[in-house]
Design brief:
By secondary structure, the protein is an alpha/beta fold. Helix content is 45%, strand content 16%. The radius of gyration is 20 Å and the shape is globular. 48% of the residues are buried.
Length: 346
């Protein structure tokens, strides 16, 4: 049964629009965009909001934090929001079960779960900044690694890497569930774990303030097989897209403009400051700037969807998860049509 999120419930996590241009005399098209948090996975969309790119496309966008990927997707599937910035694999599974959700653009194109090790483990294994990728893979053997949940994305990444290294993840290392980055940091500082797997900014914090070292940071493209992996995409219902084609194209134009800004030195600085001021002003500025700098390679240069992106998602999911993605359902669960039109008109 699909869980519906009412507009009243959605309004609790709403992010205010920043830097929006003056309202025109006519009404703008109103959209609700749902995401699970305001962290680096969603900074392209937050940039489009903060720098007024949605407003420039005559869109009035309400950005909502739904506190969870499943709730975000359910909001779109149930008609309470128009766009979900979320995991394509979840949308593909929903499509196979009868939903009409589909991916129309990438938003993050790296697998952003990063493996960070304690300074002690780095010294014990002889791992330095100059160590090869193969040496780093071998350093997984014997580790006690924390993930937020067994069976989740971080756990899948570890098992994928262990297979590359010829390591049995159930016998030659220990994977333990520790929810929340702060708890992982505490466990590592006490010597209970040798490292952890989690998206930014916990790894940067550990390196910056706790003597830790990067082991394999997939978010920087360090895993060749996952370089270009669409971790987060733009999800919408096919039925809504058909009725609102021009609105969807304008939304993607704003996304494209934000992507271009993030990768531009001058505009990227404006975007970074606007996102920090709007959603992260309580975060240490130096740490935020470091996370932003590390995150840039994870953002695509284009909203275009390519078949190779989908093939990479399907291959990884079907190798690491017990329930494979349905090939036929997946073929109908994405389109480049709206992105192509947005790029043509940009």
């Amino acid at each position: 049964m699909t869980t519906r999120i009412t507009r009243r419930a959605l309004s609790i996590g709403t992010a205010a629009g920043l830097g929006a241009p003056a309202r025109l005399a006519f009404a703008k098209d109103k959209l609700t965009v749902v995401m699970s948090s305001f962290d680096m996975l969603f900074w392209v969309t937050l940039t489009a909001q903060a720098l007024g790119y949605f407003g420039a496309q005559d869109l009035e966008v309400d950005i909502v934090r739904a506190n969870g990927g499943a709730r975000s997707l359910a909001a779109v599937a149930g008609g309470d929001a128009q766009f979900n910035i979320g995991a394509p694999a979840s949308a593909f599974r929903a499509r196979a079960r009868g939903s009409d959700v589909m991916m129309i653009a990438p938003a993050v194109v790296q697998y952003v779960d990063n493996i960070t090790m304690s300074g002690d483990w780095a010294r014990k294994q002889g791992i330095t900044a100059q160590s090869t990728y193969q040496d780093r893979l071998r350093a997984l053997r014997g580790m006690t690694l924390a993930v937020s949940s067994v069976g989740g994305g971080a756990d899948q990444l570890v098992r994928f890497l262990c297979k590359q290294a010829g390591i049995n993840p159930d016998r030659e290392l220990t994977i333990t569930a520790i929810p929340d980055g702060a708890n992982m940091l505490a466990a590592m500082s006490r010597g209970r774990i040798d490292g952890f797997v989690i998206p930014p900014p916990t790894g940067e914090d550990a390196v910056r303030n706790h003597g830790a070292q990067p082991l394999i940071w997939a978010g920087r493209g360090e895993v060749p097989q996952l370089d270009g992996f669409v971790y987060i995409g733009v999800i919408a219902r096919e039925s809504w897209l058909t009725r609102n084609r021009e609105v969807a194209i304008r939304f993607l134009r704003a996304q494209q403009r934000a992507m271009t800004a993030v990768h531009n030195a001058e505009e990227g600085m404006r975007a970074r400051e606007a996102v920090w001021n709007g959603w992260h002003s309580r975060t240490d500025k130096g740490l935020f700037d470091e996370v932003w700098r590390n995150a840039i390679p994870a953002y695509p240069h284009s909203v275009a969807v390519e078949p190779a992106m989908i093939d990479r998602i399907v291959a990884f999911v079907n190798e690491t998860q017990p329930e494979p993605l349905d090939a036929q359902a997946t073929r109908s669960a994405w389109t480049n049509d709206y992105a192509a039109a947005a790029l043509q008109q940009t």
